[in-house]
Amino acid sequence: MYAIVEIAGQQFKVEKDQKVYVNRLSTEEGKKVTFDNVLLIGNGSDITLGAPAIDGAQVGAKVVKHLKGDKVIVFKKKRRKGYRKKNGHRQYLSEIVIESIVASGAKKAKEAKAEPKKEEPKAPKKETKAASPKAETAEVEVSENLVTRAEHRVEQSGVEIDVDKLLHNIGTATKAEADDLKQINGIGPAYEKKLNEVGIYTYEQISKLKAADKENLSAIDGITRERIETEEWVKQAKALLKEQNK
Length: 246
Fold this sequence. Notes:
Structural class: alpha+beta
Order of helices and strands: EEEEEEEEEEHHHHHHHHH
Number of domains: 2
Largest sheet: 4 strands, antiparallel
Number of strands: 10
Helix content: 25-40%
Distance between the termini: 68 Å
Strand content: 25-35%
């Protein structure tokens, strides 16, 4: 028996005991996960097609480990413009083993999982009480920055910054909290504007930049990991932050 199932935005043809590499899942290593968006199931000459998914069908799997894929080099060049851009990328993946393919009967299990969710309206209320106007403003501004930055990258070089990952690592900030990034030697008005576009406003955020974040920022024209390290942006930001907190 085999099935065609959608996992993490991609379609795979899977069989029992098969190992599959898929886009990174949020499930922890060693735990089981189920996928109910089954598009087709084949068993010998019997083939069942979904419209688009098969009602009650389910594929069960176990997450073996999380890993990174092979490095892919993205090189862009514009003739007679003196423009060259080289970036490396390794996709975050999860290795899973298919444990079961159920053609029907998974619907009840799905409904059983949905029942406890009805008792969860209290959680948003707690979050609403704890949330301040500043937090809400930050969420809106970060969302706007994501859209603006994605459009800007497509126009400039076709390489997008992983803004979600970047801001998760260094934290978020709002325009109202913005520091004068031009105080950092090597950051002028143009670079300050580009950093603001991806949600970087403060010395504290720059002080938290790690190697992966610097590589991420190298998708911005003119900014490279070597430049950030040579001009010691992180060290300067820490010094300015220390003065600011006196």
